[in-house]
Prior knowledge:
This protein has about 725 residues and is an all-alpha fold. The protein has four domains: about 1-45; about 180-415, no CATH class; about 435-540, no CATH class; about 545-675, no CATH class. It is about 80% helix and about 0% strand. Keywords: Coiled coil, Golgi apparatus, Membrane, Protein transport, Transport.
Amino acid sequence: MNSILVLDLWQRVDNSFAPISQKQLNFINKLDAISHNNQSNQSDSDRQTVVATDSDPLVPDFSHLYHVCIFDDWFESIETHFVNQYDSRFKKLLNYYSQCKQLLEDVNSCLTYLDQLRQQYLSVSNKTKTLHTSCEQLLQQQHGLIVAVETISQKLMYFNELQPISKKLSAPTMLVLNESLMPMLSRLDECIAYLESKKNYRESEVYLKQFQHLQSQALSTIRTHVIKTLEQTSQQVMPETKDALTPNDSVFTLFYGKFQTNAHRIKTLMQQIEERTQQSPLYSQYLSECHQCYFTARESLIGPVLSLAIDEMVASYQRNYCQLIRSSTNVVIHICQDEYQLFFQFFTQTTPLLNDFLNKNCQKLYNTLRPVVIHLEHLESLSEICYILKNEMIDENVINQSQELEPFIQSVERLLQDTQERLVYRSNIYIQSNIIDYTPCAGDLAYPEKLEMMKSIAQNLVDTKADETRSPADLHGMWYPTVRRTLVCLTKLYRSLDKSTFQGLSQEVLAACIESLDLAHNQITRRKGAPQVTEKVVDSQKAVDNKIKIKCEEFISHSTQLLISSLINLIELSKVLQKDNQLRSHQMFSSTENVKKAIAEVMDQLRANLAFVESRMALYLANRDTEIILFRPIKVKIQQNLSDLEKLIEKHYSETERQEIFLQKDNQLRSHQMFSSTENVKKAIAEVMDQLRANLAFVESRMALYLANRDTEIILFRPIKV
């Protein structure tokens, strides 16, 4: 029992004295079993009163244990026996115990050491974490310092560039064409831009001024090189004496071909400056100085040659003004084009100085040609010059949209305006002296004898069948002199002036022409009577619509009276008689015979005078289309009067009487060759339609050409349409 308790103490889980292995546990169990067996055997022997023999000292014999001392001896002997019997085993157990105790002490010592080690580990771990945290902080600080150093270095980099750049620019071996110059100039731009944006930095203003000074020094070096090169090139191509200055092709080849020898190197430098003109006004200033030097050099070369060339042309074409205009302007055009192309051999961007330079060259042309133009007196020369300047010089170049010729176009436009002013001035003088103040001679007023004589001559020269209805009046030589002069003047003005100026001046020309025609009309009337269609020669002229209308109406009324005056009188008489209801009582209308007789007289008058009217219209108008247009209202009036007569007869005569009268009228109508057959009528209608289609567009185009006013065209065409 005690062993089990001890074993329990040893085997407690929460606090064991000395944990034993399974083998040791089995051994203890065996000892416990032996102890129980011995106790059982001793009890049995006591109950059976077994007396041990002397040979067995272990058998208890209590008979002789009658004294305590004897018992003590016996017990001692027994104890000694047991001790001797179990001593080795017990010593082993003690030895085991000692070893276990020592093991326990070692284990406790180890635990102590482990605990110390754990404490030390925790301490080291804490220190390691602290060190790690400190290292991270130091790394962060180091990174921050590195960034700060890099930032400072980057910012100081612009400041530090001052000394190296200054040394390079000050070096005696520094050349404009050195490859390092352009990168250095770019670096200067970067430094200046940076310092201008960081004016709050210490000493930034000082460094900025020094960098700007270096920039100005570099640009001054480039400018000096460019100016020197241009001056040397100009001296090389400049003729040695003025006598050698001739406007021939070799001189121009020298001025352009050899002058651009160094163009590529200069253009490389100028391109660097032109790309930076938006960064600083300093670049624009130096670029402008280079431009001025360039144009000064070109002016010294081209100016004298151009002036000499134009002066030689003026001397060469003394009276051939048109050829002078063409030749001189072509020379200036070529110079403008060549100078424009040459400029872009040295530069990449245009400049207002280029236009100024081209304007100077064009101004030489203007200053030379203007005195020539303003002293011209002939309308034909002035008109031709206006046409050349407007169509050949201005319009063609405007269509081509040549930018290099804009100054030339401006100068030519000013010259054109001066020429047009001169043309208008000379036209006014021409109108006064040759139209208004014209005094006709006897031959000018010999109408219609003059026309009849020319018709007779023309009939001898051409086939009579082809020209039997034509008149020599279609030849300009047969027109009245002021009309011919007016048309010539208008022709010159129309192709030379703008629309508004032409319209105003044409009014004056036509008014003068009409005034001269009125004067001639009065003189012819006083001599022997004027033809009623005299004014028709200005049928399609602007601003004479009323005059034409009045004369046409007079001619239509006169011709109508000439052809059917008897019919008109008959109609007027019938209107008067109808008011009093006395129509049939009058002798003229009392019988069908009288009516038929009156109609016969009308037809005879019409046949007798129709050919005369047609011949007079052909004689004076000399234009079949105009004759047809003018004869149409006459025909309408005749038809209206015939229609009125027909209505009168239908109203006041019976069916039988009407048939008798109309039969006579129809017979008379069918007796005429024109109406004798349906084929003749169809043919006449076909001719009318063909003539209408063929000439309608022509009439409209001519009206538009001469009138140049849509409202006037509509007003004038309305009676034609009616």
